[in-house]
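tool=predict chain=A
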Amino acid sequence: MPDTTTDVFDVVILGAGISGIGAAHYLRTEHPEKSFTILESRETIGGTWDLFRYPGIRSDSDLHTFGYEFKPWRDKQAIADAPRILDYLNEAVADDDLAGHIRFQRRAIAADWSTSEQLWSITVRHNDSDVVETVKTRWIFAGTGYYDYDEGFTPHFEGRERFTGQIIHPQHWPEDLDYRGKKVVVIGSGATAVTLVPSMAADAAHVTMLQRTPTYILPLPREDAIANTLKRTFGDKRGFAMARQKNILQQKALYKLCQRFPDQARKVIRSTNARLLPDAFDVDTHFNPPDNPWDQRLCVVPDGDLFRTLRHGQASIATGHIKTFTETGVELTDGTVLDADIIITATGLNLQLFGGMAISTDGEAVDLSKSVAYRGAMLSGVPNFLLAIGYTNSSWTLKIGLLCEYFCRILTHMDERGYTSVQPVPDPSMETLPLLNFGAGYVKRSLDSLPKQGTMAPWQMTMSVSADVKQLRKGEVDDRFLRYQRASVPAANAAR
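tool=predict ok
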C-alpha cells in the first residue's frame, strides 16, 4: 500500500510504557498548547510490565521511587507485582485523558530530520495491516527503553537440540505452560532468575537455579512499613512525597557505601545471606560474586522469598559452567548432571535503542556509535530528539521525571525566543567513554553500537538524583554546547 502522510505534531512520543506515559503527563501539564501523539508498537500500554508474563514478575525497585513523582503510589506493596504496576499506569492514562492520544500497533521504523522544514518525518508501519504512513513532528521523545522487545538474549548452548523437554526464554513465556510436578532448571542469576525460582517452586517438583557467576542478593520487605505509616498519617500525597524522599536517600546511601567501602559491604551482604540460608549451605560457592557490590545491579528478593524457598528444600542452586544439554537436562563441566523437564533461559536481554528505528538527518544515516549524549537527554548530531534512559543504580523513573522536566524547560525556552530546533555540539577534542558504566552482560555486549558519553559535564551520563536535579531541573537550557536555530521559512502549522 502506498505511503500516507498524516498531521504535523509538536511532539511524537515513542512508546506507551512508563517513560512515554510520564512524558505525556508533563506535556499535558506544562505545555497544554502542544499537540502530541504516542506511537505504541504493541496492542496495549505498559511496555515491560505487559510484555513479560512469567510467574512472579515484579519491580525490583520500590514503587515510591519507581512510580511518578506526580502520582502517589497508594498500594501497600512497595515491591509490587506487574498487575499492580499496570493498574497504576492505566490510572495515569485515565487521569490525563491520554487514551485518545495513543496509536496502538504503530512501529516507528525510520525517522529523518529535514533541516529546511525543521521537522522530523517518521516512517510508521501499522503492525495490524500493511499500511505505512509518514508522521511529521517537531520533536521526538524516545520512551522506548533500551532493549529489544521482539527477542531476548540466549547464548549458544552445546547440545541444545538434544534436549527433549521445553526450553523457554522469560521474554516469551507461554500462557499455557504447565510446570506442576516437573523439574525445572532456571539458567541465570539476575533479577528474572531470582524472581522465577521462588514463584515456580510451590508447584514444581523442584527448581534449580543454575548460575555461572553469583549475584549480590538482598532481602527487602515487600511492604514498606515506614512509607505506609507516613501515608496513613499525612495522607497519600504528602505521605508519598515523604516516603519518596526517604527512599531516594536510602538508595543513594546504599550505593555510595557499597562503592566507597566494597569490602565491608560485601561482608554485610554475605552475613545477611548466611543468616537466611540453610545450615551448612555453601555460601562461598553460591553467594560470593567476584565483583564488588553495585558493579552490577543488586538483586532484591521481597520478604526473602528466595532464601525461604532454599531453606524449605523446594529449590537449590548450582554454580558452574554448562558443558552440554542432554536429552534429560544439563551437564556441567565438573560432571554435575541436572535433570530437567523444563529449562528456563533467564539469560538476559538484547540491547536496542529506539525500538530499532533508523535515524537520519537530511537523508544521511546517523551513526549512533559516534554520537555523544548531552546531560543524558539529547544526542550530538540529532536535532530535537530526547532519549529516555533511566538510572541503572536506582529507580528508572527518577531519571525519567527529571528528563521530562528538562524537556519542558527546553520547549519553553524555544517558544519564548522563536527557535525551531536545538542540538548539542561537543568539543571534538573531548575524550569519550562507553554510554553506560554498568557491568551487566547485556550492556557489555552492545557498548560498541551505543552512543558515547564524555569525560566532563554536561556530557556525562550521571547516575545521581542530586546531580541531575542540578543539571536537569535547575541547570541552564542555553549553554555553549547547545546550538539553537530559527527556521528561515516557518514549518507547517501543528495539528491542534
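The chain is about 30% helix and 25% strand. Residues 24 and 339 are 49 Å apart (CA to CA).
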